[in-house]
Design brief:
This protein is α+β, with helices and mostly antiparallel strands and about 450 residues long. It contains 12 helices and 11 strands. Strands 2-11-10-6-7 form a 5-stranded mixed β-sheet. A 4-stranded antiparallel β-sheet has the order 1-3-9-8, with no helix packed on it.
């Protein structure tokens, strides 16, 4: 087979494939919709897990992946419906042929209107074919758009990681350097985005094109634009289609925002997404109600709303603010290099064929300091039921979703039956409070 795109044989092959492409489109759409639908639930689990583990950048990436999955699946569903309609029109044409307006017997006013607006049935089939092919190509163009978003974000993460870990800067200098880089990078992204929504507006003027060219080449390299650039410009040279290709992402964001702020209100006194308090119980603080994979503990949890044993487990999920308070209280626990966030896990122990080893002696040092860490945790954070403080001793643990946290058990044998309120009290660096009630969880205790 000739691979010369200028040869007549190659053009004939393309014409043949073009006329038969609808079969491949339906096969690909079917498999893609099934795969995307199967991927939604695992992505949602990963998304909520990353939120609870304070993985901000990873959360943003997963959220974008979920959005991209819904957009691609929605586009392919539209394509399948339109392609089904197209197949139906072909079958109808085989039976009845063209539309016979005279046979309808309508008045001349309506006959002339229908001939002008509806026109030939073959023209309708042709237009429907063009729409189907356009929607199919547009669906996969969205994949490349989201890939570009990931790569732009990944590039920033890599540069920030290098600056933070290369060893040439102190923590303060590294933070300042990353901040300056972030400002410059965001400005370049806004310039690039402006050219995108104006469909190449900065490329048209000779003066702006001269200065924009390096920015265009830079983002073209980091987004691997060479893989989809011909598809983009093939859309942009069509007046009717280029608006759809350009504004489908902004339109999706507007629709998403509308769906977030508009919905059914059941009560004038209902608060959407309300957390657990003395007068509201949320299932995310009761472990027996976390029935879905996406149901994750919201900071503190207890086994159930109803406790029928003389003891109760209390789990406190780790977060950055909690550790900030511990480090501020005991400066001896402050490490020379704060490695929280994205960094090499040099304190990790590896297991292989029955042997365990680590790349650094920091593992042993951290293991010894865990005792001091937990002692400070016990001093700073108190557990109170109603008005009585309870003795406790936290230990480190992982919950069922492998989220790092702390657990302890409270002795309830002297507690009266009925409703009670569990309070976690401690410092909250977010609001610069030395002592605050961080969460209140209602429960009912009935002796077995």
């Amino acid at each position: 087979m000739s691979t010369d795109y200028n040869s007549s044989d190659f053009k004939k092959l393309l014409d043949k494939l073009q006329t038969e492409s609808w079969q491949l489109e339906l096969i690909i759409s079917g498999f893609a919709i099934y795969g995307l639908f199967s991927a939604i639930e695992p992505l949602r689990v990963e998304y909520f897990t990353s939120i609870k583990n304070n993985q901000t950048i990873y959360t943003a990436i997963i959220q974008a992946l979920i959005s991209g999955t819904y957009i691609l699946m929605g586009s392919l569903l539209i394509h399948v419906v339109l392609r089904g309609l197209w197949i139906g029109t072909l079958g109808l044409r085989y039976i009845s042929g063209e539309i016979d307006y005279d046979r309808l017997g309508y008045a001349p006013k309506f006959t002339n209107y229908l001939k002008t607006k509806v026109g030939s049935f073959d023209r309708y089939i042709s237009r429907l074919e063009n729409v189907c092919s356009t929607v199919f190509a547009l669906a996969f163009l969205m994949v490349f758009y989201f890939l570009s978003y990931f790569l732009i974000l990944t590039f920033f993460v890599i540069i920030a990681f290098v600056i933070n870990n290369i060893g040439l800067f102190s923590d303060e200098a590294a933070a300042q350097t990353i901040s300056i880089f972030a400002i410059i990078y965001v400005i370049l992204i806004l310039i690039f985005f402006f050219d995108y929504i104006t469909m190449g507006g900065l490329k048209r003027d000779h003066w702006t094109a001269k200065y924009y060219y390096p920015i265009y080449r830079f983002f073209g390299i980091i987004t691997l634009a060479f893989t989809y650039r011909p598809l983009v410009y093939n859309f942009l040279d069509q007046k009717r289609v280029r608006w759809v290709a350009t504004f489908i992402l902004p339109a999706y964001l507007v629709v998403l925002l509308f769906m977030q702020i508009y919905g059914v209100v059941n009560s004038n006194y209902q608060i959407e997404g309300q957390g657990t308090s003395s007068y509201f119980t949320s299932k995310f603080n009761y472990e027996d109600e976390l029935t879905e994979e996406t149901d994750l503990v919201q900071f503190v949890s207890i086994p159930s709303k109803v406790i029928d044993k003389p003891y109760m487990r209390v789990y406190v999920g780790f977060n950055k603010f909690l550790e900030d308070a511990i480090l501020a209280h005991d400066s001896l626990l402050m490490p020379k290099k704060d490695r929280r966030g994205y960094s090499f896990k040099i304190n990790r122990r590896f297991y292989f064929s029955g042997f365990n080893f680590s790349f650094s002696n920091q593992y042993q040092r951290i293991e010894k300091e865990q005792i001091r860490y937990l002692k400070v945790l016990d001093e700073l954070y108190k557990l109170k039921i109603d008005s009585t403080f309870f003795d406790k001793e936290f230990v480190m643990t992982n919950d069922t979703n492998k989220r790092f946290g702390f657990e302890t058990f409270l002795d309830l044998k002297n507690l009266k039956s009925g409703k009670h309120l569990l309070h976690l009290i401690g410092p909250d660096p977010r609001f610069e409070k030395d002592l605050d009630t961080l969460i209140t969880i209602p429960f009912w205790y009935f002796k077995d």
